Fold each of these.
Amino acid sequence: MQPVVLGLTVVMVLAAVGGVVAKSLRQPAILGYILAGVALSLLGRNVDLVSAMGQLGVTFLLFLVGLELPIGQLKKMGRTAVITGLGQIVFTSISGYFIARLLGFEAVTAIYLGIALTFGSTVMVVKLLSEKRDLQSLYGKIATGYLLVQDFVAIGILTVLAGLRPGEIINWVNLLGVATKGALLVGLAVWASDKILPKMLDFLGKSTEVLFVVSIAWCLGIAAAVSWPGIGFSPEIGGFLAGLALAGAVQNLQIMARVRPLRDFFLTLFFVALGANIGWENISRMAVPAVIFSLFVLIGNPLIVMLILAFQGYGRRVAFLASTAVAQVSEFSLIVIASAARVGYVDRSILGLVGLVGIITMTLSTYLIWYSERIYKVIGNFLKILEFRHKTEEVKGEERLKNHIVLFGHNRTGKVLKPILEKIGKLVVVDFDPKVVEEIGGVYGDIADYELYDELNLNEAAMIVSTVSDVEDNLQLLSSLGKKRPVAIMLAADTNDAVKLYKAKADYVLIPHTVGGEYLGHLLSTHGLDRNFIRSHGQIQKEHMLKNGA
């Protein structure tokens, strides 16, 4: 037992050091774990046990994916997410295939390499956008939307691979058989989630400890059942089906909260084992293809996304910022290649190659996403070729605008302000979402675009209202105004940003949480514990939100 304990101790210490170093450099922890695996291979440690335990990590990962299957979010993103996500998958996989063939890889290997180069890391991108406070921006929503579409496709590919036996030849008969079995299993999972599990969980849900143990037993039990030779799927897909069956349960949030630490532990071991499989002896042999594939992921993938978004009517800024989300390979890319290696379709060395591409692209794309705004300011003018919609075409009237009101952003705050501002004066609404512009008849444009300022004749405006929370964009707008300044009302995410805007001569800065707190404080100081008033006031607000589609 001691060698096992010692081995796990070495693994976890290296993983901890790698994770800390990665975080200090603003890199995803996954990168640190992979590099820990590379270090482990240098020490000559056996990683068979780590690899086996790592598979449990993938099983728990897909268990949680099934639990929190974001179908509702996918529906909200709609057409843009689906077109961008599927379009990028098609063009990237085809391009990746031909690049791999030119580098001398066999056809089957080239297919899997093309697929692996397709998927961006949803977890990594969402975390970075959240830290940048851009998750709710238009480009942030587009990026997370098409990445979610990619995750669905990745799960579909994993399901197919999981249903194939090692060495089995891919043909239409086999694929149809796998698809049929997969559909039946999904149907059973949905049936169980409706007929069996609610009553069982209601009975067990009184104890969070028991609920946790039962959830793990359910996950591993289904994983073992679907991997039975008569069914022939991998345990990882069993984990996904187990999670899917629990997705509609009232207790799913409790289950997710308890399972995540367990998933993180075992998934850490998976990435360490992956890093160990790269090995220094393979790096020199894989260096050239790894660099070429990495350049394709870092440059080619964003370019494909930019073109797809441009054809849908989005401006160059939104297209560029959203495209940076796909400039790295994801954890799903690594899992797909690992699954392909398991069934014998690719050599184990290909897993090391994709791991090396992951190290390069994750490292560089982190900085690309973090500094995307600065990069855009440098190359923005060169991207004009990507704008197929002329934003100034929709500025109505032959005479130059004067004494008007300009509202930047038809978001949640903008929707509330629009009818009020229309009563005050002539209103021009500016938004960088083409769908919104078509709906309200506004002006298609971007608050960060200098050229638009002149078209809108901002210095002759009576008032400018920005509901965009990006402080840099708002500061740029304020700095462009001359001596004859219109009334400038800005939105800020927090008090620090508000101070910056006031120093830049904003007339009023709206801080949502501060205003909300002040308003609630006013209600409570005026009416105290008057439940009837509070309830009736809440009812009025509820009816207003429902009426306006909130």
Amino acid sequence: MYYEKGYWGKETVLDAWNNAVEKYGDNEYVADDRGSRFTYKEVDEKASRLASWLKEVGVETGDVVTLQFPNWAGFAIAYVACLKVGAVIHPVPKNYNDADLIYIMDLVSTVAFICPTYFHNTDCEQQAIDVKAQVPSLKAIAVYDKFEPAKHGTIELSDICSNYEPYTGVPKVSSDDVVVILSTSGTTGKPKAALLTHNNMLYSERVFVGEARRTEDDVMFDCSPLNHAVGFWHGLIAPMLVGGRSVLMQQFSPREAIELMNREGCTWTMASTPFIYDILKCIEFDNGPQLETLNLWLCGGAPVPARLVHCAKLHGVDLCEVYGSTESCPHVYVPIDKCQEWSGDWSGIPYPGIEIKTVDNDGNEVPAGVQGEELSTGPHLFVGYLNEPERTNRALDDDGWFHSGDLGYIDEEGRLRINGRKKEIIIRGGENISAREIDDDLVECPGILETATIGMPDERLGERICTFAVARDEHEPSLKEITDYLASQHVAKRLWPERIEYLPEIPKTPMGKVKRFELAEILKRAHGERSEIAFAHSIKKGKLSFPFFNARKADKHFNLKP
């Protein structure tokens, strides 16, 4: 069906890359904030030499090559080399330790591994050697000597690119073959290995870059991890399809990010809500530099508050929500022309060729305006989880619909609003309450900078409403002050927090999603042991230690006004 409608074709990602090199060869393709720059031709030539090494060490069509890279331009050389030999690209987080790598590489049967020599206080070369001894499928390791030489005898990427002849073979690959494995873990448990084909990637990124109205003249700013669809697909593949340029940033800092974007002439980016939050705070309150060239910010990972949309526009940037997941890619978006009109009220409409619906717990489609689980189907969907048929069957039903686990509703115009995860539902006295709805009601609460709400175990009701909060200053509003505010806003009493816990920062994933399971652990330790005031003050005084905090000060959070 997708072939007949023109959504899929026979072209592979390698075909798309070769077309880009032929058409835009002398244009710069990728740069990073650590001094590396490569044109399309330069990436192609170096990747061809790396491909020769991959073939020499025994990588065959369909074999998995694992890549562990910071946001360095050299990643482009590695992923293109994989395409040239028909290998499956498997990017993993840069902070994976030896145990993480052993687990995931064994799961996907990695044949070759490419990583830095050294990064962030870790001897990555030695770690790779140790991992190789525990992964039977792993045949060879190469290290990217960007800043440090190899110290344990492992072949360096610079030597490969200097001494190997370019590979000229053509892999026997179909557009229906898997091109990439992206790991996704949700909030708990071991990561799942999501399989996506050439057709999945090309369709998704073509509609993505097309609806964003990007061209060869546009420059993408990419600060998202390269193991994530946002960093890899949207940051590198989408610009490549139109001959554009990508600028990578290793470690996000608002002021430095603005300066880098201005210096490189970046016109667009995609990142999660906290990134634009910090950028605008830097401009509005920290006397940071203005955005000179950026005109489009695509935002995912969490709903976009209206005040951010309006504030971004004041600085010349259209802030548009994009919704999706590793498995479903971006499949819902806010059109640029609707950015201000919808103003954060809607997650968006589906991209062309994609269908969405919302269903109840029995799988029956619900009417417009009624909340249910969001499902999607179309040429964007992954094909399953590697070696996990049960998980695959739970996610993809017999009719080809992907069950996202996200709750929302669709209006009469086909617009989707995501309200939260199924797992974010608080069941209080038999009533389902959206944790995200409570957080939305507290966005403008005086004295509160940020909140994250979870269910608190209760013997009588099953769960009660517990809200974790970051205070604006030294004054931490009491539970009564908060509920008085909600009452003044005519918020139903059933949506009022019943307990408040103050933290210096809400724990989040690198993509900006709240780690609600970690909040549950904090609550479990604190519940019944101390009053809300005592608990809050114990944190302020440093009596409690939570290793996932990076000790950012509360003034990193703010409340922008339109």
Amino acid sequence: MKKTGKVYLTLLMAFIMVVSSITPAFAVEDAVLDEAVKSTAEYMYKQVPNPQVGSIGGEWAVIGLARSGYEVSEEYYQKYYSTVEKYVKSLDGNLHDKKYTEYSRLIVALTSIGKDPTDVAGYNLLTALGDYDKTIWQGLNGPIWALIALDSGNYPMPQNSSAKTQATREMYIQRILDCQLPDGGWSLFGGTESADVGDGVSDPDITGMALQALAKYQDREAVKKATGEALQCISEMQNGKGGFSSWGTENSESCVQIVVALAELGISLDDARFVKNGNTTLDNLMTYYSKGNGFLHTKSGSGSNQMAAEQGFYGIVAAQRLRDGKSSLYRMSDSVKVEGSTPEYEAGSGLSGKNSAVTSRPITSPGRTFDDITGVNAHKNQTAIEALASRGIINGKSEKAFEPDATMTRAEFATIVVQGLGLVPEANGKFTDVLSGAWYAAYIGTANSYGIVNGNSSTTFNPNGTITRQEAAAMVARAAKLCGMDTQVDSAAVRDVLAQFTDYVKTDEWARESLAFCYKENILNQDDLEIQPDVSIKRCEIAQMLFNMLGLANLL
């Protein structure tokens, strides 16, 4: 009797697996998935108004939007492309000496909007991927993303005359196969000469990405075999809620990589191998979804939720495309087509009505960042901070630390605004507490002369006093006017904009129009529940406000 039961159960499971493999069903309802894609696209469009070159607030947002079908203005993509051109030119085409995924990420993003990565400001970004040794230096990420980038536009393998070893697609495929771990999955350095303690255990993120890279090569017996072993590994590491953990933490991004991997392979997300207790990986990913705010990194909200939002976004886009029978996320024969750059969209040219003294700050320190806003410390304002730091507009508290949650003095604020607008610093000697020899004297003088900052009396400035949120709004609004923006908001509109905040009545009358302008133009986030007008503003918040304003003024 027991034997008969086991046979029956085996047959039943086999039937379920067969049915699941041929039926493209989704546990997440169509309407729920469609709403999530639309809502997150709207959030991304607002949250990343001026995409920069970077892993947050840059390529992933562009890729998600471009592959989602969400209606995005051509100007948005044009400005991004102009930013890329300026960035590549500032580095003479050498994006990084070690991290060649910098090239791959840009190639994929440019391909998604129909731009040619072989000619970006006169540089061929594909060439770097012809250098085998440099591409594999950073672990398995290198060959994985080289293949994804090359295959996104079916680009031929570039010839790299300076390479010690000329790469081929076969070499990158074989590198991935050679690094497969005994359990069937992959880790960042597992199977390489750089492997360390812990690298022998498969990671769902790397395993998912490896499968994405190998997806186009399933006609090869060795690849097909490795894929089958990897899928079994994924099935075994999936938890009872349908999700995954990386480095001991259950998170949304791991789910994303598995969803994208299955979609690239054309495997139903409801395949019985990847359903636990009735939960698919997509089901689990959606538990991190917050309508209007993208995705969380963890259920508690710890970690970089902006990074999670961008990755969660392209994850559900991949799921939607699979459901609808469209080409996969990284097979971009149907990419958005953006026409060539025009002077109208030239990034950094400013607005027609700007003060003639206002100029765009060029990138002088490409890739400038800080340890406390990147990696495990990834910060939601990372894009803004890095964009300003790369142009010398804002500095860290030290070489490696930005201290995003620290407050900012009035002198520091005057300095970054003057630098952000490209104004020539010149002391005016108006304030008795601003000594002529002080490092900030010229910046305060210029900011005051152009009407951006005032003193706290007719003769004093209080340079070491901290800036409140409403003071920052007033000063950014004045800077915006200098940049040619219309900062006027009528009294009715002021009331309508500010009345949504519970502490509206706590704002000072002199600051309300500026606050309304900043919220209306999304220089400040309207999703905040409170204005907190008298609270000292944080360095990260100042960076985000100035970044948003300069982007709107076309000075980035």
Amino acid sequence: MDFFSKIVKGRWWFLITALLLVAVNWFASVFHARIDLTDEKRFTLSAATKKILKNLDDKVEVKVFLKGDFPSGFRKLANSTQETLEEFKESASGKLQYQLVSPDDNMEDADVKWGDTLSAMGLYPINLKSQLKKGEQQQLVYPYALVKYREKVIPVKLYSGIPNIGRQEINSAEALMEYQLADGIYKLSEKQKPMLAYSIGNGEPQDVRTYDLVENVLKNDYDLKLLNIERVPFIDDTFSLLMMVKPTRPFSELEKLRIDQYLMRGGKLLMFLDVLDAEMDSLRIKNEVIAYDRSLGLSDMLFKYGARINNDLVMDLQSDKLPFDVNGNGQFEFLSWNYFPVFISKSNHAVNKNLGFVSGRFVNSIDTVEAEGIKKTVLLSSSANARTISAPALISGRENVNAPEDEKFRKANIPVAVLLEGKFVSMFRNRLSQGMNDSLEKYGKSFLPQNISGNKMIVVSDGDMVLNTVVQQEPLPMGMNPFTYGSQYEFGFANRDFLTNCLDYLINQSGLAEAKAKDYSLMLLDSKKLEGSRFNWQLLNIAAPVLLVMLFAIMFQWLRKRKYGTNAI
């Protein structure tokens, strides 16, 4: 006590205190730790993320395009991104650098704005509209980051929700922040890409309609191979996933056996199927088209696995738009087209978490059916105002000229995308012919009547969902409506996000399932309780600082009197 009294009374006490503060700050900068006291451990990186960052062989550069005068929601998102990247930087031991950039800034060594570059990459902004005293204000926000590793660059979407951003949407985006960034870094730094088979031979598209799918998704993240199931004796186990997109010709029993046994051996299936023949090209020419069954021959196999795609079309009041000549005078108006439904996910799974609007084209409904040991999760479904029409169905371009009869749209949440998980039973169990068995044994493959360790697959009843259209010889991003492109109704749907989420979940090479499963609880204040204690909080906020100042003044005066009073004696 005498020691501290001498310091206080001495003339060097201020200098000593300053040196101590400097020493404490230096020590804290060199040796520091954080304790995460949140229930969700939102500030604690998963083990998989730490492993990815620890194993980096070179530096990672991250540019985040959330710098600017944004509304509160996106300011919060920008702060969360910074906090997450600080944690990444710590775990990466100096091998990660990040920077917040404004989309209005020019690129390095180029007279081009970052926003224009992002749009050219298919990374379209969110058009925010807000009401001010002066009127309506529009603001373009690019919720993206570009991750660079060596010479490779990958975009990361930081927000995929609906444009009307709220607390829940931001909360979901924050929960996915670690996964989105870690997954991007992993895809750039992984030594070997997983092999993916794209099924051909049954009329699947291989033209410009697959440009966005192939060039911007599959080739970037996977070792892509084309696979004609008809011409191979079996589907090799080295393929992590078999993807089927809009087949138009029937599958033989041997082809189905190969798909079935691939699933039984642990291979993943991702299927985007149109069971009805209904195309916009025919509708443009004749102004009407009859949708009829393609007879793909996959119904019995899917039924065995726990799903049934129905021979019908989903019509929804929540839909995308088409131009219609309402008065027959060549003056077109954009009206909702009920055959182009727009889906909002329930965010009930990692695949559809924080997912924006997803657009469909002539979509069929899906029923989940009894299948022992199989868990079914609906990933996409219609709005609360939908209906189905059975095939054969006449689709007329004149249908939406008049307002739809709303009373017919009474069905809600019609499933159109389903995740199936569990120990699948082969559709050929107890019905395998000798010829089929011989075809397997010839290549050293024994028949498996059931999946041994459990597996998963996703079925989507829309083949067009992951295809793109072409405008002026330029392929549009998947989900972009060519009829509204360039108009005030142009909107970038989240079809690509849905696809990548499906692929990531099924393959899960990175081991980041823990990071993606994070779920932040939205802590809302009790408004009634808050109003009742309003006066107490106001009093505390006003009185507490005043009392602290007064206390400091009293202590200062006491010390001063004690010091100079002792010297006077």
